[in-house]
Amino acid sequence: MRSFAVVLWVCVGVVATAAAETYRVGPIEVAETWARATPSGASVTAGYMRITNHGPAPDRLLAIRMDAALAVDLLELSLADNVMRLRSLGRGVEIAAGRTVEFRPGAPWQAVVSGLSAPLRPGDRLPATLVFEQAGDVTVDLVVQPIGTGLRWSSGG
């Protein structure tokens, strides 16, 4: 029972750390930055965050760069006729004035991180530079969460 309490305390601490950090560049606010841990041998994960544009004009997330990965692809996820599709967002993701865009499990936008140079373990920090068309660049840390974080399980019934 004691080891369960320690694991729970560590997990809560990691999640609280990710939720507590907020980054700003101009009118853009980036919060709740995290990535999922990778199983042994995997070199792909996803980056998650909430981006809010507090300004009077739209901006666009053009790219995400990471030294620890070969590529970060901005993708749009859609479901049509029971077929899941991923479409590359070559022009990035628009963040309208006064609006928020969320990269999270199940959301339409995904930041897929591939070619990781090392496995990601819970508690690791993965530095990433977000490139905005108007606001410029901001460097954030994606705090690595345990495998399965953010997933919703359904009994199918």
Automatic annotation (TrEMBL):
<dbReference type="Pfam" id="PF04314">
    <property type="entry name" value="PCuAC"/>
</dbReference>
<dbReference type="InterPro" id="IPR058248">
    <property type="entry name" value="Lxx211020-like"/>
</dbReference>
<dbReference type="InterPro" id="IPR007410">
    <property type="entry name" value="LpqE-like"/>
</dbReference>
<dbReference type="InterPro" id="IPR036182">
    <property type="entry name" value="PCuAC_sf"/>
</dbReference>
<feature type="signal peptide">
    <location>
        <begin position="1"/>
        <end position="18"/>
    </location>
</feature>
<protein>
    <recommendedName>
        <fullName>Copper chaperone PCu(A)C</fullName>
    </recommendedName>
</protein>
<keyword id="KW-0732">Signal</keyword>
